[in-house]
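Q: My hope is that you can spare some time for a protein that puzzles me. Underneath my words sits a plain record pairing an amino acid chain with its backbone structure tokens. Those tokens are not coordinates but codes from a learned vocabulary of shapes. Thank you; the sequence and its tokens follow:
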Amino acid sequence: MPGRIAPDDGTPRIATIRDVAQHAGVSIATVSRILSGTYPSAPATRAKVLRAVRELDYVANAHARGLAGVRPKSVAIVVNSVISPHYAHVAQGVHEEAAREGRLCIVGTTGGDPERELAAIRLMRQEQAEAVILVGNIVVDDAYRERMANYALALAKAGSQLVLCGRPPLGPDVPAIVVEYDNTAGAHAITSHLLSAGHRRILFLGRRTGYTTPDSRIAGYRAALAAYRVPHDPDLEADGTMVRDEGYRMMRERLDREARDFTAVFAGNDLIAAGARDALRERGLRIPDDVSMVGFDDLPPAADVDLTTVHVPHEELGRTAVRLALRSGTPGVAQHVLLGTHIVVRDSVAVPAGPSLP
């Protein structure tokens, strides 16, 4: 079996650098120098060593490479979850740009746990990642700011760069790059789309006070209402997290009321919209004939259900984060970038039927 050496008792074992040297007929030092690329060697000797490596399926010890200062260049992305389409698409952008730059991409997940986030940062620092990209909706409080500042300073001392992706900046004294997209403008635009169609009672699903992403989206929603001189009604804002089951729950609870008091729905993201759509269909309500609906993100299942939504440049967020991190310190390279969003119009908005609701 390749890579397994059978000792006298017949039990296979992993090939070592000593085995490679014996197989190639050279010294251990010669094998080490050729594999690390730190010393010139004759082409014939190099060929013998590489052939022995292939035939024995030898894998160099990662710790030994680290001690020798030989590590593959890499960037890291740390997300709450790899299941979420948003995080998956940002990670894909990081992977693509890292590959284009000749770097490996390391992915870590936290589940939103600060302790796991800290452990991930420490691991990426030990692995000497050139950049650590943190992605995720968070609560910005003093504890968060202090934690991020400590991360940024620790990584900078290790020659790495912290990048906050989809998170707000921390201030000029923190050595962190920020790559954001315009949540507020996108929410303002999509709410205005409903208002221009004649809707005045617009239900917002997914309020979560204190969290950066829903806070900025609801700010855009409220600003659009004000621009159209539509009174803000807090009762038209439903609390919930940004997952499909929550969309279903929020809509079902709303429909359980005695009378429907809205003509349109602004779902905080497309997953919420999908869950809300399920609840509407259970009650025999059609989109857009009975209720208009819009979402945010332009990720599955938006196109599948013909949902008008806000397009977020998820993969470009990841690509931009890598580009800026690897060029950090170069004159003219931005430390804070705000990417734009735009509406994707599909067939989920119609003029409200009958007289407008009070």
Residues 85-100 form the longest helix (16 residues).
